Amino acid sequence: MAAQRTSFEKLQRDRAKKAKAAAKREKRLEKTAPEEETEALPPLESEPGKPLSASELLQRVEDIHRLFEDKKISFEEFEEQKADLMARIPVD
Q: pTM for the whole thing?
């Protein structure tokens, strides 16, 4: 025995329900989407010619991780800043 086909009205209700859910999702994402403002970190060197210590650099790495997790900086900015900080860590 063949299965009964769904009616046109049921298909329309399903489509309307999906469209409403998509509209709600978009509205919710707009509300929670971060603004395009990026939080800037202070300059890397405290005094000209005097590099930061390893602990200060690691603190800066933690700061950029926090900014990335809070979605205040993009992944590309995060990777660029992290690579720059890791290159500055002195190895004894």
A: 0.47
